[in-house]
Amino acid sequence: MNDMNDAIPSKKSLVMRMTREVLRVLKLSWRPLLLFELVYKLLTIGIFIPLLSALFNQILDWGGYQAIANHDVIRFLFSRHGMVSLIVLAPIAIAIIYTEFAVLVYIAYYSIQGREVRVRAVLMKVLIRLPKLGRIGLLGLAIYLLLLFPLLDAGFGASLLPGILIPEFITNELMKTLAGLLAVVGFFVFIGAMNLICIYALPILVLERTQRFIQVVRRSAKLFWRSKFTLLALLAEWLLVSILIVVFFFILLVLFIMLTMWFLGENFAIDMALGMIMSLGLYTLSLLLTPLFVIAITRVYMEYTEPADYAADEDGIDPTYWICEKGKKQQVKKQGGKLITMIMLLCIALGWGLTTLFASEQPAQRDEFILMAHRGDLSSGIENSMEAFEGAVQAGADRIELDIMQTKDGKLVVIHDENLKRLTGHDIPIYDITWDELQHIPLQDGEQTSRIATLDEVIATFKGKTKFTIDLKPHGYEQDLVASLVSTIHKHGIQDEVYVQSTDYEFLQEFRAAAPNIKIGYVMFAAFRSLHPYDVDYFAIEQSFISSRIIASAKLLNKPLYVWTVNDIDSAEHFYKLGVDGVITDITADIREHINLLH
Fold first, then answer.
1. Are 504 and 530 contacting, i.e. CB atoms less than 8 angstroms apart?
2. Are 521 and 543 in contact (CB under 8 A)?
3. DSSP structural state of residue 285
4. Which of 218-227, 279-288, 548-557 has the lowest mean pLDDT?
5. CA-CA distance, 158 to 94, in Å (whole number)?
6. What is the pLDDT of residue 329?
7. Measured CA distances, 221 to 11, 146, 173, 198, 199 (Å)
8. Does 565 sit behind a cis peptide bond, omega within 30 degrees of 0 on the bond before it?
9. Which among 397, 503, 389, 399 has a CA at the least distance from the CA of 452?
10. What is the C-alpha separation between 25 and 231, in angstroms, rounded?
């Protein structure tokens, strides 16, 4: 074995020394790693994302799309303009993500050998290899870099696409049935297994000779199987290290709070300590996690491969050297280390400052923050039941959000699912059963039981106690649905107390024509670009698609924006501080109590 392998301990000692080995490599390479990650993240925010957004918006303009939402997203993807956007944007995104990972792999590879590298030289090595990505297979790279690895969402990833979250409204609905729960669990097990199989894909792609992506996957799978116990030991070590880090930061936080309380006062000290330590800690972790992951995987990869497998130096570029002007070379060599360290620390401080500045959300000015109880209060009763609505009123909801459908004989009933099976056990579509028949079928969820109510009954019972948000759920067999709903609202005289919303924009426009004095809202489970093309009074947008651009668009239109379905306190506070006008939630009481503390 060559000198490189002399620096690598034997397999027996590797298991016990892996964390120390990673730290040894990090000690040698922390400056180029952190400096590159910081600069690349800033480039991503300042250049790459705006560039991709501009290209995407230009393609939308060519296609005449002022905005796309809900089912229009699927139609767009399968249109020729959608195909063009994939063909144009995917290779650019692949190149951006590959460049970041490749630089980190090269730095880790040479640092493991005990060689200090120059980021510019390494970047040149990567850029030279970029044209060869086409030989590997863009489809395979796209599946791995743009889908499979981001779906892992393990806290580390590319700056451009750190993670992909499955919208909660999909997973939450699926997990309400056993089959759906098994599907969700199976999906995430599959994603985890595929990422384990491809765990060495990055170092193989970067360090070995160009080969087809399917060959990369096969080779990674073989290496994974050989190194599985080492990876398991590494995971165990890192779990222990993580616990120690958490304990260390907790002790540090307590000490910092005590010191600041002593000098500055109790409330100010706690707020400042939590803010500073949390923001600095999270920012530092965001810079370190991906490099640490790359170092660890590259380190294990090199343990289970032979030097003959590597092609890293075939391009003739020395990663430890960068040509300087003759007169400056000696001075740079003499002072370079101190200069780079100082610049890096200044950049980190600047980056942290900018991050803190943009993250230091202050409660936006608004008349009120509306809490809509999503299908009522689920701790009080089955969703969309009278008990759940009563619980929502007691929990302090500003509005109860309820779903309505029509039965076979045209009766408006309060239910979410088109099929009764999930909550009744009867496999019957709602449009195939009459109201008289439906009254004899009880609702059951666990130990809770109830019955299906009519819209008339809900309004009559809770009118004056709360306001209503009625979500239209068209099933395609409606009988004058809009006319029936308008008639029911006017009969109870709640025109000023009710919102009508739906994911079906055409139904909303039909309702607006029939009742222009009643406010309507467009429920969006996917939303891109501006909101201005939609003739509605407010927007209810799934939380995955909430962005500063979307919020600004709603503010410019002077129309409220509500977020659904927000089921944790931190997310509710986050959206509150972003300036949205309210949330649709299953935990009304908890969020109400927390929001009151923020006033």
1. no
2. no
3. H
4. 279-288
5. 10
6. 46
7. 19, 20, 34, 6, 8
8. yes
9. 389
10. 17
Rounded Cα distance, 339 and 62, in Å: 48
Q: What proportion of the chain, given as a percentage, has pLDDT over 70?
A: 84
b or e along 531-555 (b: 16 or more beta carbons within 10 Å of the residue's beta carbon)?
beebebbbbbbbbbebeeebbebbb
Please give the helix or strand (H or E) that residue 400 lies within, else none.
strand 399-406
pTM: 0.83
Query: In whole angstroms, how far apart are CA 380 and each of 155, 383, 451?
Result: 35, 9, 14
Predicted confidence (pLDDT) at residue 368 exceeds the cutoff of 80: yes
Position 252 pLDDT exceeds 60: yes
Average pLDDT (316-326) is 68
Return the higher-pLDDT residue of 410 and 261. 410
Query: Residue 461's pLDDT is what?
Result: 96
Q: CA triplet 367, 368, 369: central angle to 5 degrees?
A: 140
pLDDT digits (tens, 9 = 90+) for 479-514: 889 999 999 999 999 999 999 999 999 999 999 999
**DSSP strands (E only) in 510-588:** 519-524, 527-529, 538-542, 561-564, 582-585
Predicted confidence (pLDDT) at residue 24 exceeds the cutoff of 80:
yes
Please answer whether residues 392 and 377 qualify as being in contact, where contact means their C-beta atoms are separated by less than 8 angstroms. yes
Q: What is the mean pLDDT of residues 584-590?
A: 94
3-state SS of 371-387 is EEEECCCCCCCCCCCHH
- The helix/strand/coil state of 501 is strand
115 to each of 24, 28, 301, how far by Cα in Å? 12, 8, 18
Task: Give dist(CA 543, CA 583) in Å, integer.
Answer: 9
| C-alpha to C-alpha distance for 298 and 282, rounded to whole angstroms | 24
Pairwise CA distance, residues 345 & 464, whole Å: 60
Q: What is the mean pLDDT of the chain?
A: 85
pLDDT level of residue 271 (50, 70, 90 thresholds): low
Residue type (1 letter), 75: R
- DSSP designation for 466: B
CA angle 144, 147, 150 (to 5 degrees): 95
Cβ count within 10 A of residue 332? 14
Q: How confident is the model at residue 358 (pLDDT cuts 50, 70, 90)?
A: very low
Q: Supply 84's token pair.
A: 């063009």
Count of CB atoms situated within 10 Å of the CB of 199: 20
Read out DSSP for 184-224? HHHHHHHHHHHHHHTTTHHHHHHHSPP--HHHHHHHHHHHH
Q: CB under 8 Å to 565, separation ≥6 — which residues? A: 168, 169, 172, 374, 542, 543, 584, 585, 586
Through-space distance between the first and last CA atoms of the chain, rounded to whole angstroms: 67
pLDDT band at 363 (very low <50, low <70, confident <90, very high): very low
Element (H, E) at 154: none
Beta carbons of 467 and 495 less than 8 angstroms apart: no
